[in-house]
Amino acid sequence: LSPFSEQGNPEAQYRMAIMYQNGLGIVRNDAKALELMRAAAEQGHALAQHGLGFMYLQGECTPKDAAQAAVWFRKAADQGMAGSQMTLGMMYEQGLGVEKDPQAAKRWYELASGG
What we know:
By secondary structure, the chain is mainly alpha-helical. The protein has helices spanning 2-6, 10-22, 30-42, 46-58, 66-77, 82-94, 102-112.
């Protein structure tokens, strides 16, 4: 995977990011995990966008930043990622990183449920 990741392949970057994030077969490296997750996300990789949103939301490999999390969840949600749609619904419901908006929350929940 590493050579493909270094060549800019977003799927390889995403998978390597997960490996670095969790120390799977390699030494855990938060900075490298964030770098690779962002690189894949910026290329439009929906799972990486969701993963980067999660990193920002949970403060994993980077300081917590709910507003930045919302940006990345939105990008993944716009590509049909139900998990990101559900998370955005929760964020709008609670006003976490976005302005509280019950109608937006409802819309994202409906999209997540296939409606």
